[in-house]
Design goal:
The complex is a heterodimer. By secondary structure, chain A is mostly beta strands. Chain A has helices at about 10-30, 415-440, and strands at about 35, 40-45, 50-55, 60-65, 70-80, 85-95, 100-105, 110-115, 125-130, 130-135, 140-145, 155, 165, 170-175, 175-180, 210-215, 220-240, 245-260, 270-275, 285, 290, 310-315, 315, 320-325, 340-345, 350, 355, 360-365, 375-380, 385-395, 410. Chain B is of the alpha+beta class. Chain B has helices at about 1-20, 125-135, 160-165; strands at about 30-35, 45-55, 60-65, 70-75, 85-90, 95, 95-105, 110, 115, 125, 170. Classes of the chains: A mainly beta, B alpha+beta.
Chain lengths: ~450, ~180
C-alpha cells in the first residue's frame, strides 16, 4: 500500500493561497491605517513659584519644563518680564552640557536662548530644569516675574510628528513673592543649574491648562478647554497678536466651553487663555494660538461627511454632555439651515432638540442610566449619515479627579478602508464557499 | 475543474484587493506636489521646479506658484510618453530636494523639504547657525524679512536656530550643474 503524503498537492495549494490572501489583506490594511503621533505639550514654570527675599538679596529661579511625553529637546528660548523698580536682572546659568547662545536685557525684560553644546538624540522625560536665572531685590513689597508668552519657546523634535520640529509650550506659570526683611528670605533659592534629567512630575504642581481645542465657525468659534483642576478661564483674543479683545473669567469646572460670536468669516484670529492657580494665586497663561473662521457655503452646496465635524465635550461626564456638529461642503465651508437629526445608537440617554448658533448645531445628551455606560449617537441629515460619537457617562465621576493620561497614539480608519475590509471579508467568504463545495464534491 | 475554479476565485480576490489598494484618488484630478513636514509658519510663495525625464531631457525648468503654502500643481509637466521623471525643487530657505516618480501619475507626490538655509547657498551648516544666532529675538518688519527668519513666521526665534541644527546637510544640485535661481529667494 503506497504511503499517503502528509499534505496533498491540493491541500498545499489551498494553504498557500490562503496565506497569500492573508498577506495581501494585511499589507493593504497597514497601508490604510494612519498613525497619528500625539504632539508633545509642556508646562513651563519657575521654581520656586512663590518666594520671599530680603532687600538687596538675590533670588534664583530654576525654569522648569513639564513634558507630556518623552521628546528630544533641541533648544529653548525664555523671556521673563518683571518690574524694574522691584527687581534687577543678575545672571543666567545654562544647564550642564548646554550653552547660552544669546541673551538680551532691557528694562523689565530678560530673554535668553539655550541649546545643547552637541547634538543630543537622547529623549528628555518628565520634568527638566533649564538652568537658572537670578534677580536682585531692589524695592520692597510684592514682586511678580512672568513669562512673555510670545517669546517663550521649547523647541522639540519628533520625527513621527508633522511638523517634526515645533514649539511644545502649552502653558506658562509666573512666580510671585515678597521683598521683605523676613529672616526666611534666604530660603527662596532654587537648586544650582543642572543638566536636563529625568525626574518625576511635580506632584505639588498646581493648576495647568491641559488642552485647548477649537471648532471654527463662519462668524464664531467654540473653544473647548480642559484644566487640571476646576477653575475659571479668561480669554484675550483679536485679529492680531496684540489680543485687543477680552472675555471675563467664566466657568468653574475642569472642562469649560467658551463660545465666541460676532467674528468675521475667513479671518484669522489669535487667542490666549489664562487661569489662576488657586493654591499660589499665580497666573497661568497659555501660549498665543490662532484659528481661522471658515466661509459660508453657497445655498446648493452638498454636505460632505468627511469635512463635517461632530464632536462631544466633555467626552466623559457624570450625567450630561453636549454634542457639537458643523456641516461642511467639500471646501470645508459651513452649510447652515439644515435639519440634522441625532439618533441613539446604543446606551440609554435623552437627546435634547438640536439648536443652531453661529453655524454650529448643538444638543445636550443626558444619561438615563444610574450605572456607568457608553452612549453612541449618530448624526444624519435627510438620511445621509454624517458620523457618530461615543461618550462615557459615569455617575461616580468627580470633577476633582486627576486628569487622565492621554493616549500617545491614535488610529484612524477612513471610509475607504472600511469598504475595503468589507470587500475582503466578502472575498474570503466566497473563496471559503468554493472550497467547501469542492470538498463536498470530492 | 474545481481547482481551476478555486484558483480563479483566489485571483479575483487578489485583483480586487490590488485594484482597491492602488485606485487613484480621483481620475479627473491632476496630481500635486505636496510639501510636507514644513515648519508651522513657513509659507513660501513659489518653488523652483526642474523636471528631467529618464533620458536626461529637461521637461520643465521654472518657478511655480505654491498654493495654500503646501501644494504645487504638476499639471504643466507633460512628457509626451510614459517615462520615469526626477523632480528637483527648491524653495526659499530650504535646501533642494529630488524625487523620482513614474509618469504620468494620478497620485500626489509628497516631498519633505528641509528648511534652515538662511543664506540660500543650498547648504545648511554652521554659517546658517551663526546668521540665525546673531539675529535671535529680532522681528522681521513689513517688507523686509530677515534672512535669519528661516521659517518666515516674522520673528527670529530658537525654532529658526533648531531648524539649522536638525536639518544640517547639503541640498541636491541642479543636474545641469548650474546654481539654483535666486528668484525664489
Amino acid at each position: 500500500m503506497p504511503k499517503r503524503p502528509l499534505l496533498t498537492s491540493r491541500t498545499l495549494l489551498v494553504v498557500v493561497s490562503l496565506i497569500t490572501i492573508a498577506l495581501l489583506v494585511g499589507s493593504t490594511l497597514l497601508q490604510r491605517i494612519v498613525f497619528h503621533a500625539a504632539e508633545t505639550t509642556s508646562s513651563v514654570y519657575l521654581a520656586p513659584i512663590s518666594f520671599t527675599v530680603a532687600p538687596q538679596g538675590t533670588v534664583t529661579f530654576a525654569p522648569k519644563v513639564d513634558l507630556s511625553t518623552p521628546t528630544q529637546l533641541v533648544g529653548a528660548e525664555l523671556a521673563l518680564k518683571f518690574d524694574p523698580k522691584q527687581l534687577s536682572f543678575d545672571r543666567i546659568n545654562a544647564p550642564g552640557n548646554w550653552q547660552v547662545i544669546k541673551n538680551n536685557q532691557t528694562d523689565g525684560l530678560v530673554e535668553w536662548a539655550i541649546t545643547p553644546k552637541a547634538a543630543d538624540n537622547n529623549l528628555a522625560v518628565g520634568t527638566v530644569t533649564l538652568g537658572s536665572v537670578s534677580f536682585v531685590a531692589k524695592g520692597s513689597g510684592t514682586a511678580n516675574i512672568s513669562f512673555d508668552p510670545s517669546k517663550t519657546i521649547v523647541s522639540v523634535f519628533d520625527g513621527g510628528h508633522s511638523p517634526s520640529l515645533y514649539n511644545a509650550v502649552s502653558s506658562l506659570q509666573d512666580a510671585s513673592g515678597t521683598i521683605s526683611d523676613d529672616p526666611d528670605a534666604s530660603k527662596a533659592v532654587a537648586p544650582p543649574a543642572e543638566t536636563p534629567v529625568q525626574s518625576a512630575p511635580l506632584s505639588s504642581l498646581g493648576q495647568q491648562i491641559l488642552s485647548t481645542d477649537i471648532i471654527a465657525l463662519p462668524t464664531g468659534a467654540i473653544l473647548k478647554t480642559t484644566l487640571r483642576y476646576p477653575g475659571k478661564i479668561a480669554l484675550r483674543f483679536g485679529r492680531t497678536e496684540q489680543l485687543t479683545n477680552s472675555l471675563q473669567p467664566i466657568g468653574n469646572d475642569r472642562q469649560i466651553v467658551l463660545p465666541l460670536a460676532g467674528l468675521i468669516s475667513s479671518t484669522r484670529y489669535y487667542f490666549q487663555i489664562t487661569t489662576t492657580d488657586p493654591a499660589s494665586g499665580s497666573l497661568i497663561t497659555s501660549r498665543v494660538q490662532s484659528f481661522t473662521t471658515i466661509a459660508e457655503a453657497p445655498n446648493n452646496a452638498a454636505i460632505v461627511p468627511n469635512r463635517s465635524v461632530i464632536s462631544v465635550f466633555p467626552g466623559q461626564a457624570q450625567s450630561s454632555t453636549t454634542v457639537y456638529m458643523l456641516l461642511a461642503d467639500a471646501q470645508g465651508a459651513a452649510i447652515t439651515d439644515q435639519k440634522p437629526t441625532l439618533t441613539l445608537v446604543s446606551g440609554q440617554a435623552k437627546i435634547a432638540p438640536l439648536s443652531q448658533q453661529n453655524g454650529a448645531y448643538q444638543s445636550v445628551i443626558t444619561s438615563l442610566d444610574s450605572e456607568p455606560q457608553n452612549v453612541v449617537i449618530r448624526a444624519t441629515v435627510n438620511d445621509q449619515n454624517i458620523g457618530q460619537v461615543t461618550m462615557r457617562f459615569d455617575p461616580k465621576l468627580t470633577s476633582a479627579q486627576s486628569p487622565n493620561a492621554s493616549s500617545t497614539q491614535s488610529i484612524s480608519w477612513d471610509s475607504k478602508t472600511i469598504i475595503l475590509l468589507v470587500g475582503v471579508l466578502i472575498g474570503i467568504f466566497l473563496v471559503g464557499l468554493v472550497l467547501v463545495r469542492a470538498a463536498r464534491a470530492k | 475543474m474545481k481547482i481551476a475554479a478555486f484558483i480563479l476565485a483566489v485571483l479575483t480576490v487578489a485583483v480586487i484587493i490590488f485594484a482597491l489598494s492602488f485606485h487613484p484618488q480621483s481620475a479627473s484630478r491632476s496630481p500635486e506636489l505636496v510639501l510636507d513636514d514644513l515648519p508651522n509658519g513657513y509659507c513660501p510663495d513659489q518653488i523652483w521646479l526642474l523636471v528631467r525625464a529618464s533620458d536626461q531631457v529637461t521637461l520643465f525648468d521654472q518657478a511655480v506658484k505654491i498654493t495654500n503654502c503646501r501644494q504645487v500643481s504638476l499639471q504643466s509637466i507633460r512628457p509626451t510618453t510614459s517615462t520615469t521623471v526626477t523632480i528637483y525643487g527648491k524653495t526659499r530657505h530650504s535646501i533642494a530636494f529630488k524625487k523620482t516618480v513614474s509618469w504620468p501619475t494620478t497620485e500626489d507626490v509628497t516631498v519633505r523639504p528641509e528648511v534652515g538655509d538662511a543664506n540660500d547657498d543650498n547648504i545648511i551648516d554652521q554659517t546658517d547657525q551663526v546668521i540665525v544666532a546673531d539675529s535671535l529675538f529680532r522681528a522681521s518688519s513689513t517688507g523686509t524679512a530677515l534672512p535669519a527668519d528661516v521659517d518666515t513666521d516674522g520673528a527670529v526665534t530658537i525654532i529658526d536656530w533648531s531648524l539649522t541644527q536638525v536639518n544640517k546637510g547639503i541640498g541636491e544640485g541642479r543636474p545641469d550643474h548650474q546654481a539654483w535661481s535666486v528668484s525664489v529667494n
